[in-house]
Design a protein that fits this description.
The complex is a heterodimer. By secondary structure, chain A is of the alpha+beta class. Chain A has a domain of about 250 residues. Chain A contains 11 helices and 15 strands. In chain A, strands 1, 4, 5, 8, 9, 12, 13, 14 and 15 form a 9-stranded antiparallel β-sheet that branches. Chain A has a 4-stranded mixed β-sheet with strand order 2-3-11-10, with no helix packed on it. In chain A, strands 6-7 form a two-stranded antiparallel sheet. In chain A, β13 and β14 form a beta hairpin. In chain A, α1 crosses α9 and α9 crosses α10. The two termini of chain A are about 20 Å apart. Chain B has a 3-stranded antiparallel β-sheet, with helices on one face. Chain B has a 3-stranded antiparallel β-sheet with strand order 2-7-6, with no helix packed on it. Chains A and B meet through β4, α1, α2, β7 and β8 of A and β1 and β6 of B.
């Protein structure tokens, strides 16, 4: 059945993803004492200056949603369980731990039998999939970091997907961009005085307007302070202690250290929006795998940390652009909504899985598949 | 063939270790090979395929090369980000088999990692070349990102631009060397022996992994400008 599936029959498509926060989002970058700071990335702003802005990393989106939930869903559908080496290769991206091979037949076999791995790529370790050499399997999807929709990212968003910006700022940003483009044709040519003056005027006229409609990144931050009581101070709970004498100090006479805790978390506030660009170059079945992974994600749509406190509940909306057509693709917000294209690709994935299940039933002892998965 | 200025308009910072990457000839060769399903993960000299690019071939003392310059750009900022990996062992599909269900995150095969990414911020990268503009653009439009770690969104290209220009700047622009040239071939490059140039062992034509392409080269030092 797999010989009919050509994993090199690929198409290109860009997905534009808008994430709307339904509860505050925690995505920690640096930790300082008991304060968790949010992850930031530097981007060039509309004036060309480096500015830090809040982000949710592409790595976290790619591996959190697609690799973990998507791959788990595929294996569950097929009723497969795998050994720790294969599991690490599928879910953590593997490792190169020996001399690397160049087995194109293996590359094709992996892409035919494991579209999830073809999409996300892996470093196949030595010995895994029944092949002695380690080998890189390049992925077919690039997932960009999700940038907060704010003043600092206005230029980035205008270039990628102006539709996520408030309509009032689209024309002003375009005017600044056009003036900036006239500054220089390459790094060796200095800008003319006229171009500099036009850029200055464009900024003076348009930046206040852009600033009026787009908040600064820092205006999207909310602070959450959490405390944890020392349970041994709770009269209701001390009755469960086996040795209450220890509360008053140990044998050395020192007082018992308190287990009370206070922590400050910075969060991106609910209602904020983040944008991420995904570039894909793969097959229909692989695109269907992405749709399926997103549908699985919609069952529990939480991103980031501290979801046990309800943080990170999101809605996600996708548009596609295959350089010929563009339009709505998929919405993960409450009940998922699929466009015609997303439905068709998802059907291709379901057909593939169905044939796969049939194949597994008919070939319980298939050395090809069992050998690859070590199952 | 006409003289070209090729521009990548970038929307996110890109990850490169040196001032001479990304090389546009290597990028074009990769796209050309990928279109034909000829990319292999770890090729050896016997797998070598020379792409037929819409770029003119130059000749320096009997050695051919693609007529393209090194990347030219102005760095507005250099920053560092990190990327991390950890193994999520809680998936139900894991079967420990005879192995003890135990591993360490700080060492061994399933070690977690937290590694730096060195990022360069620029709005555009230019290359100067001699070639067919439409065909070059058609190849480049298949490339949505450049540099390392594109899968995490670094080096996103918002658009490619290829325009014809009057001058051929792929090798020299006034007294500025524009691309790596083997030290042995410098006299064939028409400007005598330049003084004070940086010398490095470098693949002056793709692929970079091919040992025979890596020779001692005079490297351009003015094609990347740092703010401040």
């Amino acid at each position: 059945m797999f010989s009919e599936y050509n994993p090199y029959d690929r198409h290109r498509v860009t997905f534009h993803c808008l994430i709307t926060l339904k509860s505050p989002l925690s995505h920690i970058g640096k930790v300082s004492g008991n304060v968790s700071n949010l992850k930031t990335l530097t981007l060039l702003d509309i004036e060309g200056n480096p500015r830090e802005c809040l982000t949710y990393s592409g790595n976290a989106l790619r591996n959190g949603i697609l690799r973990r939930r998507g791959t788990a869903a595929a294996l569950e559908s097929l009723g497969l369980s795998v050994n720790p080496d294969v599991h690490h290769t599928l879910f953590a991206g593997g490792r190169i731990d020996g001399s690397t091979g160049n087995n194109m037949e293996l590359d094709k076999q992996i892409r035919q039998l494991m579209p999830w791995l073809s999409v996300l790529g892996t470093a196949k370790p030595a010995g895994v999939f029944g092949v002695k050499d380690a080998q890189m399997v390049p992925g077919r999807l690039s997932v960009g970091s999700a940038y907060l929709v704010c003043y600092e990212t206005a230029a980035y968003l205008w270039e990628q997907c102006p539709g996520v910006l408030p309509s009032e700022v689209v024309a002003p940003i375009r005017d600044v961009f056009e003036a900036k483009a006239e500054l220089s044709t390459d790094i060796f040519t200095p800008p003319t005085d006229e171009a500099i003056e036009e850029f200055r005027i464009a900024k003076e006229f348009n930046l206040p307007l852009i600033r009026k409609y787009l908040k600064l990144s820092t205006e999207h931050i909310t602070l959450d302070q959490t405390t944890r009581r020392d349970s041994t101070h709770d009269a209701e709970l001390t009755r469960f202690l086996s040795n209450q004498a220890l509360l008053k100090g140990d044998v050395t006479g020192k007082e018992k250290k308190s287990d009370q805790m206070i922590a400050n978390d910075r969060l991106i506030m609910a209602g904020s929006k983040l944008y991420s660009r995904w570039d894909f170059f793969g097959t229909d079945v692989e695109e269907g795998f992405i749709v399926n992974a997103l549908l699985k994600f919609s069952e529990s749509p939480y991103l980031g940390g501290k979801s046990n406190r309800g943080n990170g509940l999101v809605g996600m909306q996708f548009w596609f652009d295959d350089h010929t057509n563009r339009g709505d693709y998929l919405s993960v917000s409450g009940t998922p909504e699929l466009s015609l294209r997303a439905s068709e690709k998802h059907d291709r994935w379901k057909e593939y899985l169905s044939r796969y299940q049939q194949y597994l039933t008919e070939a319980q002892e298939s050395t090809e598949l069992r050998g690859l998965l070590g199952a | 063939m006409p003289n070209l200025q090729i521009t990548a308009h970038l929307s996110s910072p890109f990850f490169a270790y040196d001032d001479w990457s990304p090389a546009i000839d290597a990028l074009l060769e990769y796209i050309w090979l990928d279109e034909r399903g000829l990319i292999s993960p770890n090729p050896s000299p016997k797998d070598l395929i020379i792409a037929e690019l819409p770029i003119e071939k130059g000749d320096l003392g009997g050695e051919w090369y693609w007529k393209v310059s090194a990347p030219c750009y102005q760095i507005s900022a250099e920053t560092q980000d990190r990327f991390r990996k950890r193994w999520d062992y809680q998936e139900t599909s894991l079967n420990w088999g005879k192995r003890k269900p135990k591993w360490t995150t700080s060492e061994g095969a399933e070690k977690s990692y937290d590694l730096p990414v060195f990022l360069r911020h620029t709005e555009r990268i230019d290359w100067f070349a001699v070639g067919e503009p439409d065909e070059v653009l058609s190849l480049l439009q298949q490339c949505s990102g450049i540099g390392k770690k594109r899968s995490y969104g670094y080096g996103q290209v918002s658009r490619w631009e290829v325009k014809t220009i009057a001058e051929d700047w792929h090798l020299w622009r006034e007294e500025q060397l524009m691309r790596p040239i083997p030290t042995e071939r410098i006299m064939d490059a028409g400007r005598g022996c330049p003084q004070g140039l940086f010398i490095l062992r470098w693949a002056w034509r793709p692929p970079g992994w091919l040992h025979s392409n890596r020779v001692m080269c005079f490297m351009p030092t003015g094609t990347v400008i740092r703010d401040g």
